UniProtKB/TrEMBL annotation:
PANTHER family: DUF58 DOMAIN-CONTAINING PROTEIN, SLR1927 PROTEIN-RELATED. Pfam families: DUF58. It comes from the Bacteria. This is DUF58 domain-containing protein. The chain crosses the membrane at residues 7-26, 32-52. Keywords: Membrane, Transmembrane, Transmembrane helix. Residues 197-337 form the DUF58 domain.
Length: 387
């Protein structure tokens, strides 16, 4: 179709030149021949532009960094290089993201230059994977008699991570024996839970020495301590359609980071069209997979949260204290979470927008949740905190 349009423009140009030439031949005089000779340069340029191939231009895209977090700006540099310095009066460079309806246009004045470059900044990139696959070039003559455009392949991948905010997390459970044992846990010695004595080993502290037992056995003996189990907590991220879902993802990532700093073993359950479960103690590779999930996750779950909690009752019963992160709260959710408070205090983080005070609908729900042993923490204006 584009070739047909270009060919029709060329025929229009040739017909125009022929009409002006016929007018000069029959009319004669200075004015008619002046119009004809004035049209000749423009016609020749348009004719040359018709045979000029924009695909000979080589495009290279350079990114300052290809991995960003929500709120950061992306700086892009486009470098264009061509073989033949054909005079171009203008060149429109347009880019479009494949994952969203956003275009960026830059106007260049190439002239006879073989190499050109342009820079632009993209703001407000949403969380997810974005692809820059091609560059659209467009040029023409100053009178619009001839236009040329082409699309050049130039692929780049941009990853936008959710915003992770430093938050302070204080666990509600302070017991030693809860949850299930997990590998790679950080063992913390506490002198208040000494269970016996053993022979001295290199690295033992001076304060651990049991002088009485050392004197009896005539060798250095140190106290042997109980190894407390780490917290094993299950985080359930609600993926039901919600206007605050981006805040839910950001808060979940921030909360997991804060828990990890506390030495708490964490598992994550993300239920949508597919069930995604990350067990605790997965190491660096699992952390990479976890953030990859945060990049691609969407609020596309057709199953309500209360049904998800009912379906995942085995996983929830193994957890010391289930933590639910959601953007909506109702009686059915509270009743389901209340079934798992026997092994520890359950917590619901309710993500909402900025508001001045508690609504009339929330107060009875908060009272009902408290009666079932559930701690409900309302997190409002988290999107403003994460900026």
């Amino acid at each position: 179709m584009k070739r047909v349009i270009a060919f029709s423009r060329l025929m229009t140009l040739l017909c125009l030149v022929g009409v002006v030439f016929s007018y000069a031949m029959f009319q004669g005089g200075f004015v008619s021949w002046f119009l004809f000779y004035s049209l000749i340069p423009m016609g020749l340029y348009a004719l040359s532009l018709f045979f000029y191939d924009l695909k000979h231009i080589h495009v290279k895209r350079e990114l300052v960094k290809a991995e960003l977090t929500v709120g950061e700006k992306l700086k892009v540099t486009l470098k264009l290089r061509r073989r033949f310095p054909f005079p171009l009066l203008y060149l429109v460079v347009k880019e479009q993201f494949s994952s969203m309806e956003r275009t960026t246009k830059v106007l260049l004045i190439p002239g006879f230059r073989k190499e050109m470059s342009c820079e632009y900044i993209i703001e407000h990139l949403p969380r997810g994977e974005h692809f820059l696959q091609s560059v659209h070039l467009k040029t023409g003559d100053p009178f619009g008699l001839m236009k040329k455009e082409t699309v050049l392949t130039c692929e780049n991948k941009i990853i936008v991570y959710p915003k992770v905010v430093d938050i302070v997390y204080s666990p509600l459970i302070n017991r030693h024996d809860h949850g299930i044992a997990a590998s790679m846990e950080r063992i913390q010695r506490e002198t208040t839970v000494a269970t016996g004595v053993r022979k001295y080993q290199p690295g033992d502290r001076y304060s651990w020495i049991n002088w009485k037992a050392s004197a009896k056995r005539n060798e250095m003996m140190t106290k042997e301590f109980e190894q407390p189990h780490s917290h094993y907590m299950l985080l359930v991220m609600d993926r039901s359609p919600n206007v605050y879902f981006e805040d839910i993802v950001s808060f979940t990532a921030s909360l997991m980071k804060a828990m990890t700093r506390k030495g708490i073993q964490i598992s994550l359950l993300s239920f949508g069209p597919d069930r995604v479960f990350f067990p605790c103690g997965g190491g660096i590779e699992q952390e990479r997979q976890l953030f990859h999930h945060f990049i691609r996750v969407a609020d596309n779950s057709a199953v309500p949260l209360d049904r998800v909690l009912d379906m995942e009752r085995i996983s929830l019963r193994q957890s010391a204290a289930p933590v639910i992160i959601t953007g909506q709260l109702n009686k059915a959710i509270i009743e389901k979470v209340g079934q798992y408070t026997s092994q520890g205090a359950a917590t619901i983080f309710l993500i909402q927008g900025k508001k001045d005070k508690e609504s009339n609908e929330e107060h009875p729900l908060l009272t009902f949740a408290l009666s079932r042993g559930i701690h409900v923490k309302i997190v409002d204006a988290f999107s403003e905190v994460s900026r």
